[in-house]
Amino acid sequence: MIKVKVNAVTVDDIDEIYHIEEIIHPNHHWSKNSFYNELNNKLAKYFCIKNEENKILSFIGIWQIFEEAHITTLGVHPDFRRLQLAQILLIRSIEECYKNMIKYITLEVRESNIEAINLYEKFLFDTIGTRKNYYQDNGENALIMFTQNIWYDTFKNNFIKLKEGIKKVEVSYDE
Questions:
Q1: 19-53 burial by CB neighbour count: b if 16+ within 10 A, else e?
Q2: Do the beta carbons of residue 49 and residue 85 sit within 8 Å?
Q3: Are 116 and 143 a contacting pair, CB within 8 Å?
Q4: Which terminus of the chain, N or C, has less C-beta within 10 A?
Q5: Of all residues in the chain, what percent carry a pLDDT higher than 70?
Q6: How far apart are CA 110 and CA 118, in angstroms?
């Protein structure tokens, strides 16, 4: 079992995050400048997971606008997939939503990204529509996914179950 720590992203993390972004999206990815801009965006919260060597393994970005949050990006380095890292980042982001009285969470995901869709469905995201030709690199459609109110018992009980189900890594948080 590996030990990981969830941290808020800082300017010093951008190079590593950008490197992961280039690996997972080689043909069309966010620029470094986009990540720097996001860190200056008062609506945005960014978290990353680091291993014991302080190497970034994954990251997530979320905007919080009034009672709604929007997941802007989620990436896991290919060498560290299947360790529940994306699930840990979603849990951390949802905890941030609870802290800030957010009610709903939304995102877009590639229609072909079945693994991500399955993860989001596990967190009770439902597909509510499609954005045609959303992705600039290949014109692929995006599914629009949305949660029910995260304060409802169904969501909260599922969230607790998912949080308790983290077994592949030992997680600590840098608050």
A1: ebbeeeeeeebbeeeebeebeeeeebbbbbbbeee
A2: yes
A3: no
A4: C
A5: 99
A6: 12
Which domains are assigned to the chain?
A: 2-173 (3.40.630.30)
Two structure tokens written together for 21: 């972004």
Tokens of 86: 């994306």
Tokens 């692929």 identify what position?
140
Q: Report the SS3 class of residue 97.
A: helix
C-alpha atoms less than 13 angstroms from C-alpha of 87 in its C-beta half-sphere: 25
Q: Is 48 helix (H, G, I), strand (E, B) or coil?
A: strand
Q: Return the active site residues.
A: 108, 120
pLDDT in tens, 55-82: 999 999 999 999 999 999 999 999 999 9
- Exposure string of 89-118, with b = 16+ CB inside 10 Å and e = fewer, is bbbbbbebbeeeebbbbebbbeeeeeebbe
Nearest of 20, 69, 12, 71 to residue 36 by alpha carbon = 12
